[in-house]
Design brief:
By secondary structure, the chain is mainly beta. Helices cover 8% and strands 37% of the residues. A hairpin with a 3-residue loop joins strand 6 and strand 7.
Length: 171
């Protein structure tokens, strides 16, 4: 595989940084193929703790976790029947989101918490109204893989914290 070092920030509409991550991502050789594949483009696995308003709304830190997918192909990708291993999340067998060419899909652990923190303007896979079955992403790193209904792996990534100074607090 190939190692990539990524620094990403999430900025609110008020121009406030709510998350800054530095990650080392390791991909399979198949994941480095030419455009035309679905990509895991962002992983928020260790967000900032809830602020006062979020705490009052009874949100927990893991409620703000999310994964973003990116379609870098010239064709739409239907997520129906696909499922994640690592965060234990399944798309419905039919009627799942379709990601347009160049488009994105965000899968939030808690869509209401996500909207409160990052804004309701960010489109989510609209039917996602339950948390990840495993309840949270591993803050120390883990493998995430997306599979088709037939069990064929579409994309996978192994993430971990690097360097350690970026571990925690959504940084």
């Amino acid at each position: 595989g190939t190692d990539y070092f990524v620094r990403a920030a999430i900025i609110t509409p008020e121009n406030t940084a709510v998350s800054l991550q530095c990650l080392r991502l390791r991909t399979s050789d198949a994941n480095n193929s030419p455009p035309g594949h679905l990509r895991i483009s962002e992983i928020m696995y260790n967000p900032y703790p809830p602020n006062a308003a979020e705490t009052a709304a009874r949100y927990l830190i893991e409620d703000f976790e999310f994964v973003e997918l990116h379609n870098d192909s010239p064709a739409s990708i239907d997520l129906s029947g696909m499922w994640f291993d690592g965060m234990d999340f399944d798309f419905p067998q039919s009627g799942a989101p379709v990601i347009p060419p160049g488009g994105y899909a965000v899968i939030a652990n808690n869509p209401h918490a996500f909207a409160m923190r990052y804004g309701a303007h960010v489109p989510l896979a609209g039917w996602v109204l339950h948390p990840f079955r495993s309840s949270k992403l591993d803050n120390g790193g883990q493998e995430l893989a997306l599979y088709r209904a037939d069990g064929t792996r579409v994309v996978w990534v192994l993430y971990d914290d690097f360097p350690l100074t970026t571990d925690g607090g959504g940084r």
